[in-house]
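Researcher: Sequence recovery benchmark, item below. Answer with residues only.
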């Protein structure tokens, strides 16, 4: 078969275009640091990379959920800790007021502090995390208590966080169980003192019960926080593992691709130089 100039020119163009494409791919890998820059680079590996990226996205969302929940539980734990201190002080005041040697004036002074502590408990029960009331259940825009003698204004619905695929965790305690007993006891203690009498035995017992309720609520929050900390550690480890697998799949071996890019460039330049001597000048001009 006779090889014509047009056939030689067409073949040369195809070869040069192939060399140029290979050089461009190698230079792209050097520039991006990635072995996979588009699905066509390696379809099976690209498909696996998509799965890894989806997994990373899910893990990242679970981590954000856990961190948000931890902010919630940290706020709740701080409020419950302060509530325990306030209830303990109420208990001390009740025992002090039970002393038969106290005068009405002395009990009036104690009553003033009792009222202040009751207001403090209301404030703690209405603790917010951002714009949301922590202890009002799902009625997060409603304060738990208007005052110490008011009825609970929230609901008893759980607030949950999705911390893993198929795993949710209740992260809230409601004020009716955590603060309700203390507010009722403080109200009764204030009523006893306002009447000018020493606290009743039932009032003192109610303060013991209130302290126990606050401690139980704080223990539950602590258990939730421990679960969240464990989930956070697991998710962080999972995130690192998936990231490493994705890196092994996507990232280029830089010494290798730099060497290949240099080799491809040399080959391309050599091909142009050689073909410039063989083909007509018009062909080289077209390139």
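Model:
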């Amino acid at each position: 078969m006779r090889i014509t100039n047009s056939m030689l020119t067409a073949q040369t163009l195809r070869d040069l275009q192939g060399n140029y494409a290979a050089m461009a791919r190698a230079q792209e890998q050097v520039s991006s640091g990635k072995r996979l820059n588009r699905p066509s680079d390696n379809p099976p590996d690209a498909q696996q990379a998509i799965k890894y990226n989806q997994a990373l996205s899910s893990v990242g969302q679970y981590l954000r959920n856990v961190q948000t929940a931890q902010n919630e539980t940290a706020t709740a734990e701080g409020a419950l800790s302060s509530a325990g201190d306030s209830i303990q002080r109420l208990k001390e005041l009740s025992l002090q007021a039970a002393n038969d040697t106290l005068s009405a004036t002395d009990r009036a002074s104690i009553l003033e502090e009792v009222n202040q502590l009751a207001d403090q408990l209301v404030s703690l029960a209405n603790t917010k995390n951002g714009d949301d009331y922590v202890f009002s259940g799902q009625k997060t825009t409603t304060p738990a208590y208007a005052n110490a003698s008011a009825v609970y204004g929230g609901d008893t619905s759980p607030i949950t966080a999705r911390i893993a695929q198929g795993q949710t965790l209740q992260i809230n305690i409601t004020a009716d169980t955590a603060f309700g007993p203390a507010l009722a006891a403080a109200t009764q203690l204030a009523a006893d003192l306002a009447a000018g009498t020493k606290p009743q035995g039932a009032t003192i017992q109610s303060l013991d019960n209130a302290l126990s309720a606050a401690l139980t609520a704080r223990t539950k929050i602590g258990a939730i926080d421990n679960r969240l900390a464990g989930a956070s550690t697991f998710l962080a480890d999972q995130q690192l593992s998936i990231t490493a697998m994705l890196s092994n799949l996507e990232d280029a071996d830089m010494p290798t691709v730099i060497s290949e890019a240099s080799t491809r460039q040399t080959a391309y330049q050599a091909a142009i130089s050689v073909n410039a001597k063989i083909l007509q000048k018009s062909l080289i001009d077209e390139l």
